[in-house]
Design goal:
Layout lengths: L3 H7 L12 E6 H19 L3 E2 L2 E7 L3 E16 L2 E7 L3 E21 L3 E24 L5 E11 L2 E7 L3 H5 L2 H25 L2 H4 L5 E3 L4 E4 L7 E2 L3 E6 L2 E4 L23 E5 L1 H13 L5 E4 L13 H5 L3 H6 L5 E6 L5 E5 L2 E15 L5 E20 L2 E18 L10 H22 L1 E2 L6 E11 L2 E10 L2
Antiparallel strand pairs: 1-13, 1-15, 2-4, 3-4, 4-6, 5-6, 6-7, 7-8, 7-9, 10-11, 11-14, 12-13, 15-24, 16-17, 17-19, 18-19, 19-20, 20-21, 21-22, 23-24
Helix pairs in contact: 1-2
Amino acid sequence: MFLRCLLALLALTSLSFSTNPGVQVRLTKKGLEYGRQLGMASIQQKLNTITIPDISGKVKLRPVGKVQYSLSNMRVRSVGLPQSELSLVPGTGFRLGIRNAFLSMNGNWRVKFHRILKIHGSFDLNVKGLTITTSIALKSDKTGRPDVSTVSCAATVGSASIKFHGGGSWLYNLFRKFIDKALRKALEKKLCPLVADAVSDLNPTLKTLNVLAKVDKFAEIEYSMVSSPTVSTSSLDLGLKGEFYNIGKHQEPPFLPPKFALPPKVNEMLYIGVSPFTVNSAAFVYNKAGVLSMNITDDMIPQSSPIRLDTNTFGALIPQIAERFPGLKMKLLVNAPKDPVISFEPNNASVQATAAMTAYAIQPNATLTPLFVLNLDISVSARVFVSGMKIAGAITLNKMDLTLGTSYVGEFQVGSLDDILKIVLKLVVIPQLNTHLAKGYPLPTLGKMKLVNTQLQVLQGYMLIGTDVQFTR
């Protein structure tokens, strides 16, 4: 799992170039450090798998003459990685440096000389001053998901000391320098391919990035990138599309994402900025799908409520309704002729919505007789929060203004309905919307990623989520 957890932070990437991002993600040095800590354990496991091919040859030694030798069954016993550094490389990705690493190995030796004399034993090899430096590129594949590859790698072994055990080990000691050199070269050849394989092993996991995440049966959200990653020496910034679509039908909304920039914060591992474009694209999608339309009947009003949805209640305010349609239940049809508009100001997320409400009398034969149509201008406040790996919300009514659209029962004072309709909104409409909002929608994520110590702020023109992260196997 070499650097898998780090790259989950780095690689929320895909390349579908467009306009401004709806969502921005920033990985800080604190996030890099977390990735380094996790990555070192994975690298150490990988180094423990090193195997060096058997080494054999012939050499002339005085005074014994020609000697045939072989080293076999070489295995790593322990690995130490006391110093490592992970840094961002502007324009590329990142660089990993490991210094002063050490490892120990053991194996078997065998020699033959004077044609008939054969002796054998074991040996211990201690390697010190091992250094690995590798640069890793972060790009996108054709599916809009991240892909990593090793750009360059260099590995050196500072020193290798070998100790032979068994009868005749004095003979090996005669050409110790030759053996040391051969083992160092063999080990150096193994290190960079091992690192390259470890990097390539990440790609199946990176394909779990939710570039297109299902929200519910109506909508999905796209997190493809709209530009290349911006890599500085202190952070890595990603601009993601952050746009809702109707499932199976990707239609662009009649508005574009505005520019916004994340503040220079560094206390958390990860920052996610969400612009009004993202949530407004959700409003566009759900209104188009008919989710924002609602039929309200009397059985949806709590029994404890002093008002009922019938012609007796409304007739007390509009006498002609009671006169023409006495004792009938009523139905209210609410829809949104315009998409709601969400805006962000410091410590305040607000929604401005325009609705049309048509009131019907329900005849004994279930026929609906229209009574009037009202236009509602509604202002609500939104409380936004992070729940698990989702962003969710809840709304409360601030203000409602009524105007008469059409009356089928003659003239009446629209203001007389203000209190009763506010009660209907608070008891039925807003609770139903909050039930939907509480389910939330997915944040960009990769693998088994968990947010820790998460804070959400509403700022001017965007929401900012600051969080640490954890990864589990």
